[in-house]
Amino acid sequence: MASPSSSRNESEPSAVGQNGQATASEESAKKRLDLDSLATMRKVWGFMKPYRGWFWLGMGALVLSTLTVLVVPQLAGDLINVATGADPLIPGDIGTLGWIFVVILVAQASLSFLRIYTFAQVSERSLSDIRRALYNRMLGLPLPFYEKRRVGELTSRITNDVTELQDLIANTLAEFLRQIATLVLGIAALFIKSPKLTGLMLLIVPVAAILAMTFGRFIRRLARERQDALADSNVVVEETLQNIQTVKSFTNEHHEARRYGGFQDTVVRLAITAARYRAAFVSFIILAFLGGLGFIMWYGSTLIASGEMAAGDLVSFIIYTAFIGGSISGMVELYGKVLRSVGASDRIFEMLDEAAEVELLSTNAKAASGSAAKATQNGFASGEPNALPTPAPLSGAVRLQGVRFSYPTRPDVVVLDGVDLGIAPGEKIALAGPSGAGKSTIAQLLLGYYDLQEGRLLYDDKPSEHWGLRALRQRIAVVPQEVLLFGGSIRENIAYGKPEATDAEVEQAARQANALDFIRQFPEGLDTVVGERGIKLSGGQRQRIAIARAILKDPAILILDEATSSLDAESERLVQDVLEKLMANRTTLIIAHRLSTIRNVDRIHVLQDGKIAETGSYTELAAREGGLFQHLLKLQFDQPLDQPRRVEA
Ligand code: ATP
User: Fold this and answer.
1) 528 - beta bridge partners?
2) Of the residues 215, 359, 541, 626, which has the fewest C-beta atoms closer than 10 A?
3) DSSP-assigned letter for residue 610
4) Which residue from 147, 405, 440, 593 has its CB within 8 A of the most atoms of ligand 1, so it is best to mutate?
């Protein structure tokens, strides 16, 4: 019934998605399978290769089960032929044929079990390797990459795209091959039964197939639009839930509900339109294919009546036709799935091919060493998984030479414009200046988050490349202004600064950061779970944990981003003491928002418009008539002193 259908599949993938399974990701899916898709498949195979034993076992089971199933129509026809006195193709009486049927059934059941089990082994394991590789790659990607993309888009890679691929490896590929075999062998069997009837059937099918194709393409487009609208509405959910406090503080619940509702209306409208056409499509398929089948039955009956065909052969013919019909419609759908999977794989490999700033090794040694080709594809080095480099033996000298910098997402805005700055080992310097002057940017550059456009960054008079990013970052600790913790326990959060730290070290660090008292007040102590992003702790408590974390890390270079900003006066005094100790003999860069906290630093650099406008000690700068620092001081201290103020430009 279907030689035309195979050409239909090659040239026309669009009849897929009749059941509305299209995803937004299909936008970028290839329109047809081509050489690039083959290359993508080869990459997927790279991940399946370590489990190829299972794969081939599954394929063997698949081929055998397809062959045994194809015997069933013949057997059914032969049973009738024996009963009506005609010659069966498979020799034997009704009893023998019945036993053959039982054997086939048992074989079918066992082979299907084997196939599903083996393909699950291949797909689950290789998919997990892909997820690990993706996650490792994401962790290693530089910050600018994240600034250009939404988190939702990235998590969708590791969830939706990988799931799409799972279907391909676990089912689609095998099913596709099975359908092709059913099609080819089924048509061959039909020709043997009755060339005349087969010829008639092949006349009906192409017309129905072409109509189905055109219809299917249209339906797929509608399904995609619906899926896109749904994705848009999900972005609203994600954004608002992530920023739920902002939504609430602005009492914008109604606004957000309306926004989400608007998207939902669009989704429903598109979905109903798509459903209407889909329903028409299904009706058409039923009419075309069942109508065709009825016609064949009618014509076959006339052949039986004229003695040209045995009754049993017509029964075999019709069952084969039903098999073939099933595999045609199955293939159309499967083809769509293959295309989607190729699209999803492309997106996955695109990310795996992104240049990472930190090369993480696969945690699965097998996956990493599975094939040489894959190892280079994924940019994974071989060797000890996740081995940390030895921390850079820094004494803490830092120098910025002629640094010119714009953020990659805003290349036109020059944030730093020729900044020269040097910090000797153990020195404490502060960066002051109006908001947006570039103070935090300097800290970010020190951490190697971004590449400079011009100039150099030297650590102990050697460029960062000499040390290596990870080794360098191991020697730098940041106590940020806004501390976000991980959802685990306080202990885990403090130990984040030194994962191998002992309990005693963690406790000691908490004590030094003046955090132990409040931690002990919790019934669970250090094992208190801090809630998602540390939401169950106050800002000041979070900050003290961040300080404990830095203490534990024992860095050569310390960056304090107005570290005491969320503490009350008493805690601040205590923490300030701790910080003094932490800063002792350690290179420290303080990003100052409140100028009162930087009286004792060795030097203050005042930034303005991306340049260092003034440099000097607190007293020098405060005394400089008409200077920027003096101006900032006046702005700050003209306000009541008990309220910390940020300096606005
Ligand atoms: P504040 O005192 O308000 O924290 P700052 O002096 O630390 O200010 P930076 O955070 O360094 O200022 O920002 C300097 C400029 O760079 C600002 O104009 C800011 O809008 C811009 N900027 C900061 N981060 C980014 C980013 N990730 N991408 C693009 N532009 C950025």
Assistant:
1) none
2) 626
3) T
4) 440
Dist CA 95 CA 79 (whole Å): 9
* Residue 306 to residue 287: CA distance in whole angstroms: 28
CB of 605 within 6 A of ligand 1: the answer is no
Burial class, 571, CB count within 10 angstroms (exposed 0-12 / middle 13-18 / buried 19+): buried
Q: Which fold has domain 1-21+195-308?
A: ABC transporter transmembrane region fold (1.20.1560)
CA 490/CA 546 separation, integer angstroms: 10
Specify the pLDDT at position 379. 34
Asked, colleague to colleague, whether 1-21+195-308 and 31-193+330-356 share their fold, the answer is yes
β-pair partners for 429: 589, 603
**Ligand 1 proximity of 482 Cβ (cutoff 6 Å):** no
**276 membership: H or E segment, kind and range:** helix 253-285
Strand partners, 405: 416
Ligand 1 pocket residue status of 148, Cβ below 6 Å: no
- The structural domains of the chain, with segments of one domain joined by +, span 1-21+195-308, 31-193+330-356, 357-387, 398-637
Task: Output the six-digit token pair for 524.
Answer: 């669970």
pLDDT for 334-361, tens place per residue?
887 888 888 888 888 988 888 887 666 5
Residue labelled with tokens 């590449």:
451
- Residue 441 Cβ contacting ligand 1 at under 6 Å: yes
| Interatomic CA distance for residues 292 and 208, integer angstroms | 9
Q: Which CATH architecture has domain 398-637?
A: 3-Layer(aba) Sandwich (3.40)
Mean pLDDT comparison of 44-48, 141-145, 466-470, highest-scoring range = 44-48
Within 13 Å of residue 604, how many CA atoms lie on the same side as its CB? 29
524 lines ligand 1 (CB under 6 A): no
Q: What CA–CA distance (Å, rounded) separates 77 from 434?
A: 89
Q: Which two tokens stand for residue 593?
A: 């928002």
- The three-state DSSP-derived secondary structure of 450-466 is CCCCEEEEEECCEEHHH
Q: What is the largest CA-CA distance in the chain?
A: 119
Whole-number pLDDT of residue 534? 66
Using the mean position of ligand 1's atoms as its centre, give its distance from the Cα of residue 407 in Å.
9
Q: Which residue has the higher pLDDT, 480 or 262?
A: 262
